[in-house]
Write the structure tokens for this entry.
Amino acid sequence: MKSKILFAIFLSGIFLFNCGNSKLRTILTDTTLVENPGEKKPVFVQNGKVKRGEYVKFLEEKTLDGKKYFLVQVEGTSTKGWIEDKAVREGKLESATVILDSDLFIRPNEKSEKAGTAKSGQNVFKLETSGNFVLIQFPGKEAYIELKNLGPANMVMRSVNFPGLGKAVITSSSQYIASEGKENEFDPRNLFDGSLQTAWCEGKNNDDGVGEWVNVQFDEYVSIYGIGVVNGYAKSEANYKNNNRVSSLRVTSDSADLTVDLKDDVYDYQDNGSGEMTITGKNIKFIINGAFKGKASDTCMSEIKISGTKGSPYHGY
């Protein structure tokens, strides 16, 4: 009889443990808890801002005008409020990093229809595993990816193909990350994507970013004859003025070490007579040497255009 009672208590403990865990949910997107769900003018909960990756405890749910809302409590605090169901996912989700630029699929096999791509460096939540595929979620996307393309952040491989120069691996000393899930918003590859709508912004805290760098490592020796730079975050005048811009850019390689002075309030390429230079090597590093002040301390550049050819006159190929 005693053993039966102990077994019943044991089962009750498992049940309570599982019930407690089942009430936990993971925040999928940065948002703010509200006191009055479904109303046109939301009343925000004091200290109710929640970030992607935080955990909340489920308390209650209601449906208003076809939308489902959850009353939740932020884990480890007394903060409570309402949130849309699409902003959370049941359970404590496991994070992973996309380590290679990867195709996404609508089903867990490579023959299914593609659902876009995920860039290396993107942090994702793992929802479920099916064979060699994993269903992942990151802001604006939920799809399957091959398991082999996920790993720790230190295995991320960022690469760019440069016309006439070949493939290169891109690394940086830092980058600004606004929140989890937005790891590629200011990725250093943005400097070489041909778009003024994107930028690399260094991520050194409380600093103008002097000494921060982006390195381009080619597979073989190259000869660079020209470098054009679009300074600042040139997406808009507001973005440009809000962030620091580079006043002096140091460029180093296996064979050169030079400084390029940049002007402010120029929203197009500046080449500064760089067509007269010759830089050779496999590694070309761009180092922030000075900054024009903006409202925020992050220093940004939108584009770097590299002109040159494969091979080096100093290495016979």
The domain at 100-152 is CATH 2.30.30.40 (SH3 type barrels.). Residues 1-21 have pLDDT under 50 and may be disordered.
